[in-house]
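Q: Structure tokens for this one, please.
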Amino acid sequence: MTSGNGTQVQGRTRIQARNRDAILTAGLDVFSQHGFRGSTLDQIAAGAGLSKPNLLYYFPSKEAIYTALLEGLLETWLDPLRDLDPKGDPLTELLSYMRRKLAMSRDYPRESRLFAGEILRGAPEMHDVLKGELKTLVDERAAVISGWAKDGKIAAVDPHHLIFSIWALTQHYADFDVQVRAVLGGTDPFPGAEAHLEQMLESLLRP
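A: Here is the predicted structure, written as tokens:
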């Protein structure tokens, strides 16, 4: 009786979407804690509240879950760099980029650790993307930064290493969160980190 109005089909679709999201969320938890090699489908299935055969209905392997997570993560990770406006005020744009990257470390620590883990294992799933899409975008934004420096709008800096430094300085707070909070006695590190990084970058970049 429900097949004529599509309710049953829509219901299955909602359940499928919910289960897929649950698997990806559980996969993110497991991979970010244990790394790719240390993670198992059983752990992910348990975290998703599904049986292993049910999980395999949605994803055929651990690798498939891992790849799906990385593909979604890369888009999120590149958005702040894409948003760097070549026509904007250089210092404002670069400080805004730093703040967005720091906010991502605060709001998406598991994703940051997942990405770091992939890089540490030699980026087997992302190597082509790193050499292609990521390199192209970084080169484009480095050219913008270099142009700002040549025009005297910011101090002369190596644009690629400036971008690398922003990555390192912000993602540290996600990837080494336990260490940071231990040293700070459990204090929230992000307000102080933002103020410190603003001061550092302003000192570096002001012409």
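A few notes: The mean pLDDT is 91. The CA atoms of residues 95 and 164 lie 14 Å apart.
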